[in-house]
Specification:
Elements (H helix, E strand, L loop, with lengths): L7 H16 L7 H4 L9 H4 L3 H10 L5 H4 L12 E3 L3 H4 L18 H18 L7 H26 L2 E2 L16 E2 L1 H18 L15 H16 L9 H16 L21 E6 L17 H6 L13 E3 L1 H6 L25 E2 L4 E2 L2 E2 L4 E2 L24 E2 L19 E6 H14 L3 H12 L13 H15 L6 H8 L2 H4 L4 E2 L2 E5 L6 E5 L4 E3 L15 H6 L10
Parallel strand pairs: 9-13
Antiparallel strand pairs: 1-5, 2-3, 4-11, 6-10, 7-8, 12-15, 13-14
Length: about 575
């Protein structure tokens, strides 16, 4: 048992952090509990010796999962899948330690956000050995806090590379909080060790047998798999150490072999309010889990507002997030034949229509129209309601995946309660396949990939390729299966293909309607719709710049190269 004496300053600081954390979510607790003691009288001692208070403290720390809070702010918007207006400074090489783009841009305050969460988890681990809370609860909450802290470090190392690493509170009387960087591989080893423990501490399913967004053993196994896969990839494994790929293979297989999850036969079910059995960890937008306090709570409708087409679903802002033609082109045909460029929506991978809204899509009873008039292209009255001339997305595509088109997407109008999926079983099969490809087991890789492609309402044919051709097909499959789930940019970066992928102009399509024919005809122009022609690549962009204020405050903390 720990026997740590706290000075007055440290005790007050701990009480402040703990009390603010639990007060922010206590309003969802039962009334009889709230009647027990005035909130102003709650101390850190109370929290760590009361089951309900301790669980409330841990629940509050799930705010570490930032993309749950900012639905449309994931990094697919800086990949070749989409353009996000708030992130364009990254693609143009303009980010600096002082500027990351509009509204926080690509950084989204990730440095401060993650270290604040890490601080909260370190407080937990500093005090939990002296807790009188029930042992079973302490065991589960310990696993949850391991998972939260590991997620925060995983997010940090993938954005910044080597980062300051601390798993305990600073010593009493320590005036300087200066901490040097810890190597990426050491932090990955820590994540792996922590998730080994968390798998044993966490339950098979959310407590009570219903989904509530808490970590389970599957979530821990999934984080371990992704962390080891990234660590084996070229950016972090330039010597192509096969032992890293073996570790990635084993971690993915362990996640699959839990047997707690199954591939959903319906791809669209993965992002509905009724949580699919394929989902290993997700967080839902609910009234009990608001995005942020105050006016930003209206961002509960963020995904719908920024994804759905204008002219159909309310006061949307679809030029904020624009899917690109290069992603549409990644969807194969059912029989492997070339796509007919003037009849592009037939014979395609069914996931295309379940992910992207295009001209002619029927969504919530609306036939979506992106066209402009071929003979009078600047005439907005002749243009479709979803076209750029009428406030629609410049690329002439929108996102369907993860939205609820039955809601009104006006800012703050209705709560969007579909989950943000962080981990699901299909990713584990793809992680497994990637490791097998690198280890030379093409047959095993093809079998793992086919588990994903053969879900009932997708049912794409098997791969037959080997070697580099199989790797190319695999990477395309991963792109399609996980589109708009915050994977693509990280994959581009870890594979080190950014110089060829991200330096290309971002393009959409022009949809031209000729009203002089009877019936009117539609043609697609794939050459003249450039959404962003200022994209460049600079190798410094493999990592983000550390905020200048952090570098200036920490003499041992060096800035990332190029900034």
């Amino acid at each position: 048992m720990k026997n740590i004496k706290f000075n007055i300053k440290k005790t007050i600081a701990l009480r402040t952090v703990i009390t603010l954390t639990i007060v922010s979510i206590l309003m969802s607790c039962s009334n009889d509990f709230l009647d027990q003691k005035p909130l102003g009288d709650i101390s850190d001692v109370d929290v760590f010796n009361n089951d309900q208070l301790l669980e409330s403290y841990v629940n509050g720390n799930y705010r570490a999962f930032k993309f749950f809070q900012f639905g449309a702010f994931h990094k697919d918007g800086i990949s070749d899948d989409a353009v996000n207006n708030a992130f364009v400074a990254y693609n143009r090489g303009l980010i600096t330690p002082d500027f990351y783009g509009e509204e926080g841009g690509v950084l989204q305050d990730a440095w401060n956000h993650n270290y604040k969460s890490i601080r909260n988890t370190n407080i937990f681990f500093d005090r939990i050995d002296d807790s009188n809370a029930s042992p079973e609860l302490v065991k589960r909450l310990t696993g949850e806090m391991r998972f939260i802290r590991a997620w925060c470090y995983f997010d940090l190392i993938n954005l910044f590379g080597d980062v300051p690493f601390k798993t305990s509170l600073f010593e009493l009387g320590q005036e300087s909080f200066d901490t040097p960087r810890t190597p990426y591989d050491e932090i990955v080893a820590f994540i792996k060790e922590e998730m080994d423990k968390a798998v044993l501490e966490l339950p098979q399913e959310d407590t009570g047998g219903t989904f509530n967004g808490r970590a389970t053993r599957g979530a821990a196994a999934a984080l371990r798999s992704r962390a080891l896969l990234y660590a084996a990839s070229e950016l972090h494994n330039p010597s192509n150490d096969m032992s890293k790929w073996e570790a990635a293979r084993d971690a993915a297989k362990a996640a699959i072999d839990l047997g707690d999850y199954s591939i959903d036969p319906n791809y669209s079910n993965l992002f509905n309010k009724n949580i699919s059995n394929e989902v290993m960890f997700a967080r839902s937008f609910t009234q009990e889990n608001p995005v942020l306090d105050g006016w930003l709570a209206a961002w509960n409708t963020g995904i719908d507002r920024y994804y759905l087409p204008s002219g159909y679903f309310g006061n949307v802002d679809t030029n904020f997030f624009k899917p690109l033609q290069s992603l549409v082109d990644a969807y194969e045909t059912l029989d492997g034949s070339p796509v007919d460029p003037q009849n592009p929506w037939v014979n395609r991978d069914p996931r295309l229509d379940m992910t992207i809204i295009h001209h002619g899509s029927v969504i919530a009873g609306n036939t979506i129209e992106y066209h402009i008039d071929k003979n009078d292209p600047s005439n907005s009255t002749l243009a479709g309601p979803a076209s750029a001339l009428r406030g629609g997305t410049q690329s002439n595509y929108n996102v369907l995946k993860q939205t609820d088109p039955n809601l009104t997407a006006t800012f703050g109008a209705e709560p969007h309660e579909n989950p943000w999926v962080f981990f699901r079983l299909a990713e584990m099969y793809l992680n497994y396949a990637e490791a097998l490809i690198e280890l030379g087991d093409d047959g095993g890789a093809r079998a793992a990939i086919q588990v994903v492609r053969s879900r009932t309402n997708v049912n794409m044919p098997e791969f037959t390729e080997s070697g580099d051709d199989l790797k190319t097909r695999y990477r395309n499959e991963r792109r399609v299966e996980l589109a708009f789930e915050n994977h693509r940019w990280y994959d581009i970066i870890r594979w080190k293909v950014a110089p060829t992928v991200l330096a290309q102009p971002a393009k959409g399509v022009r949809v031209l309607k000729d009203n002089t024919t009877n019936p009117a005809t539609i043609t697609y122009d794939y050459d003249d719709n450039v959404v962003d022609d200022l994209r460049i690549w600079d190798d410094k962009l493999y990592y983000l710049p550390i905020p200048r204020s952090e570098v200036e405050a920490s003499p041992s903390l060096t800035q990332n190269p190029g900034y």
